[in-house]
Amino acid sequence: MVNEGEGGPSGGHGGYGGDNNDSDTDGTQSLAFRVMRLCRPTFHVETPLRFDLSDLIVGEDDDDPQSQFRRLLQSQSSTTTDLTYTNRFLLHDDHPSDAMGLPGMLVLPQSFGAIYLGETFCSYISINNSSSFEVRDIVIKAEIQTERQRILLLDTTKTPVETIRAGGRYDFIVEHDVKELGAHTLVCTAQYSDGDAERKYLPQYFKFTVSNPLSVRTKVRVVKETTYLEACLENNTKSNLYMDQVDFEPASNWSAVLLRADSHHSEKSVSASREIFKPPILIKSGGGIHNYLYQLKPLLDESAPMKFEGSNVLGKLQITWRTNLGEPGRLQTQQITGNLITQKEIELKATKVPSVIILEKPFTVCLSLTNLTESKLGPFEVLLSLSDSQEEKSLIGVGLKKMALPQVEAFRSLNFQMNLIPMEAGMQKISGITVFNTTEKKSYDPLPDIEVGLHMFLSCYCWSSNWSNQKHY
Amino acid sequence: MTHRFSISPIHARIPFSPSPPHRQNLAGDLHTHRPRLPLLRSQSPALYNSHFSKDHRMTDNIDNADSVKTYNDLCYDLSSLQDLASRGAWRSILDKVAQARSRSLLSKPHEHLVYLSFNAIALTKLRRFSEAVAELDLVEKGLDIYRYETYPHHYPNRHGSMAPFVLRWLHAELPSRLGKRQETLDRFYILLQFIKEKLTNNLPDSSREVWKKREGLVINSIISHHLSHKEFGVCLDLINELINRESAPVPRAILMSKLGYIQMQFGDLEGARGTFGVIERIVREQKGDTEMMNLVNRNKALMFMVEKDYASAVREYQECIDRDGSDVVAINNKALCLMYMRDLSDSIKVMENALERIPTIALNETFVVNLCSMYELAYVNHSDIKKTLSSWIARVAPDDFDTSCTRI
């Protein structure tokens, strides 16, 4: 950008010569490489010092000098024969927006700038013959060298350039999608026969560094059956990034939906051309962030009602951003994983709870234990633990503290009953039920609480276990 | 009661007077034979000089007695000041103002203010910002005293502020030129408020129109400041407001094009495409003239450019240039497209040709920055050719031309 009054751009020239490795060259070179990075141009922006005649030569409260001065102005500015710099001084009546200083003129990139992973490196390469003699049979090569590899961009070995006259040039444009971080070198070499028919070799090196444009941080949360993926994109570049596309591609066992906030009523533009003013997603340079929220649901396969065990691959993000004049960059993240899901082996449910439960009178809860695995599990011990809470329990059992259950076959359920006595009125939870596998000597994760509604309570009794329909008091 | 500045029919017509010494010197500079830039296709020097021959003096811009009298009726020797300003002779303006002050040539208060305005503008144009700020000290102190009713013996029965609005605008703009960007933004927003309050008063229609124009000017200035700092969100909101206010089709189309440029600048290509589409419909319905048709072609060219279809972009720009040979935006952008098509030689030719053919229109800092970038790429020893360009600029350019754009 040329900012009027601040002096021209400092440093960074458009075209530049690189380093020469002189070990292979002797004497002077007839040829030289000139290189300029060809990222897209930008629009020139300035605040012009141009004024309306009526703002300049009459008092601000004087009215209608317009018609007079319109005549004056028209006599002054006829487009082709006006050979003055009036356009640098006056604003035209018909073009009030000239004061915005955005004439639509494009400016070439004024410095190499920064280059980021996912962008395309594009460069104009000009090989100049600054000698007074013709050079012949020029073999030109251009390569990108990184830590890991050498990528050939151009090679005229098979069809060498026949000749470059004195003072002449041979130009080419190369492009390379940047896929590695760190130091890169554009290596330009030319072999040619100079004016004395001597075969010369010219290598030139142009170095640049590739940085990471974005940081992506993810958080996975599971709420009941739904998994939520929150992705935070942080812009580490020096320009604002227009997020053209941010797509989450789920793994094959998931489906994903992007959740968008409802737009605030003030954002809804009342303009006729509403579609133009959709607010863009623009992440500010140097650390700006934008968050995306995806709702993921597992795609359940009918034949296998099982959940996967082990690490949970959710999918990856595909990101396309754009900078000035739509200069694109594309990246995708690594696979994003969710929380480890341990496979549930058993499930405990209340199948029947009496509709009326009287305070301090025992009631029977029917429960079922389901074996979710492929093999027999058990035998079990079911405990209503009293030791967890220090508060007074609202439901108690007295008597047998544990109940023995036999083995349960694969995918089968076992029904049993518990007798409980309520000590408090209202909605209560049956909690603290632990199931212990006596064979494997392990207890299962605390099972979900079962809620029961209790009408009234009376006094306390003994608890009994009667799954075998035998009552023990 | 309002006063109109009209030419009284009672006075006899005064024949156009010969140019005062100042103007002749300036015209003299521009008559110098311009050394031709190397690598240009040969153009007859005579063709170039004929623009500046004694028969077609640039001084003849203010070429009818009516305008001269109108200006001078308003303010002492204003037609001279105008002429100098139109030719970018800002140093001469500084001399003229200094002279008028030291010789007490100005008799009325408002004349001092007009001369002060020109002085402040000249200093700003010449990038002498601190001096410009000093000149505007009275704005800082308050313009309320500069009203016609304060000087009834000079201005019987006149009311209102005699201060030109430009003083307020400059007062807001200058801090940014001294690095105090936030101060400028604050002042512009305050100025906007001042104008809006003025518009709530019961103004006559003509006055209302003028203040509404000033409101637009200030919003445009604010947008340009936000744009240069890439604050695109607020730019979109403000330009939305301007578009909604603008009913005349031509200014509306031009304004919407700028919205398109802004969208392109931050990368919203689909948004820009939509915007340009709306403009095309407006121009088609209006059966637009050359200017509007060129606007549409240039917008189309931009869309081709972002798709990297440079050949089609060049074709669109050529249509513009064929229609209007002084469409500098088309010429500049066409040259850039040629370069992106690997045709550096032709891009340089297009630029040099324009400078030779239409120097006063093509000669601007952006144009020169682009040409110098091309020179730096094309030549190992580019300092020679840039020096030649530089000397040509020195002879032709206005005083306020920022020569640092050549990067010599």
From TrEMBL, chain A:
Residues 354-445 form the Trafficking protein particle complex subunit 13 C-terminal domain. Residues 1-18 have a biased composition (Gly residues). Pfam families: TRAPPC13_C, TRAPPC13_M, TRAPPC13_N. Residues 1-27 are annotated as: Disordered. One of its GO terms (cellular component) is TRAPPIII protein complex. Residues 30-210 form the Trafficking protein particle complex subunit 13 N-terminal domain. Residues 214-336 form the Trafficking protein particle complex subunit 13 middle domain. InterPro entries: TRAPPC13, TRAPPC13_C, TRAPPC13_M, TRAPPC13_N. Belongs to the TRAPPC13 family. This is Trafficking protein particle complex subunit 13. It comes from Deinandra increscens subsp. villosa.
UniProtKB/TrEMBL annotation, chain B:
Residues 1-24 are annotated as: Disordered. Coiled coil: none annotated. It comes from the Eukaryota. InterPro entries: TPR-like_helical_dom_sf. PANTHER family: D-ALANYL-D-ALANINE CARBOXYPEPTIDASE, TRAFFICKING PROTEIN PARTICLE COMPLEX SUBUNIT 12. This is Trafficking protein particle complex subunit 12. It comes from Deinandra increscens subsp. villosa. The lineage of its organism: Eukaryota, Viridiplantae, Streptophyta, Embryophyta, Tracheophyta.
